[in-house]
Design a protein that fits this description.
mainly alpha; 16 helices; transmembrane
Length: about 290
């Protein structure tokens, strides 16, 4: 029974990542728009209207002006612990008891039967990589996710971003200027989790801006391009986008064509030319959004 539950959990995890990263060949991509991404980005009507709406929205439980908040992000134990969990999510999946003892030989054998030859080869190497990482960095607690989560929950945030992660400051209470201040820190620690914790802003401002920029109003397609481009931006900021990263590990399980590639190679070798062109347009927008 436990074996069946484990396989179901693994399949659910793979399906969730598939919905985020599947290259959908049925969606119509827009033709390449030469040099548009080199032009300076001007704020769209959508963003301007939304900023006015968000700015005049009454704050929920936060009366202080922005300057009374703690530092946006210095060295915060909450942010640091959260970044470790995010960065090594697939190794936690492999090694931690919370994911159904996937580390046992019997369970690994069952999982391996779901993979093709190329995926299986990658899988074995990746499992070894996670074991080595656990030995090199015992402070990550890769075999005990609950312990790392307790460390996160017991830590006291010392920054605005840490307070947002802990739920002490509600993202919905921030106005557009405060959100822009967060994003323009151009920080890997912030941007790696920004789409999750600033979901409303990403859905109501960034997404609709991108529909206009890409001249494409297929919601799922634009959302997918936004995710691809955001991850590529994180790679340029210094995120681990090697073949051993959690992102590439999951992409490999979704498609054997992704196994052994880094993220830039995945973009150039697996995605369609139309998707690649739209990702470059989106990158131009994100560079303007995330940096001064």
């Amino acid at each position: 029974m436990q074996n069946k539950v484990t396989i179901i959990i693994i399949l659910l995890i793979i399906v969730s990542f598939y919905l985020l990263y599947k290259p959908d060949q049925n969606l119509v991509t827009q033709p390449e728009m030469p040099d548009k991404h080199l032009e300076p980005y001007n704020k769209s009507d959508t963003e301007a209207k939304t900023e006015q709406t968000v700015t005049t929205k009454p704050k929920q439980g936060i009366d202080e002006p922005a300057e009374t908040y703690p530092a946006i992000y210095d060295s915060d134990p909450v942010v640091d612990a959260n970044l470790i969990i995010t960065r090594h999510s697939m190794c936690y999946n492999y090694l931690s008891d919370e994911y159904g003892n996937v580390k046992t030989a019997k369970e690994l054998g069952r999982f391996e039967r779901l993979l093709d030859k190329k995926q299986l080869q990658y899988h074995k190497k990746y499992y070894q990589y996670c074991q080595q990482l656990n030995q090199q960095h015992p402070e990550y607690k890769l075999t005990n996710l609950s312990a790392m989560q307790k460390q996160l929950s017991s830590a006291e945030p010392s920054s605005l971003w840490g307070k947002i992660i802990k739920g002490e400051v509600k993202a919905e209470s921030l106005n557009a200027y405060e959100i822009n201040d967060l994003l323009k820190q151009n920080s890997l620690a912030i941007l790696s989790q920004a789409p999750k914790h600033l979901r409303h802003y990403y859905n109501q401002v960034i997404h609709w801006d991108l529909e206009d920029i890409l001249q494409n109003h297929q919601y799922d397609y634009v959302k997918q391009i936004q995710q691809y481009a955001h991850q590529l931006y994180l790679c340029n900021l210094g995120a681990d986008c090697s073949p051993n990263s959690s992102v590439l590990a999951m992409l490999c399980y979704l498609s054997s064509h992704s196994c052994g590639l880094n993220y830039e190679q995945y973009i150039s070798q697996v995605l369609t030319p139309g998707q690649q062109a739209d990702i470059q347009l989106t990158m131009g927008y994100l560079r303007n959004k995330y940096s001064f």
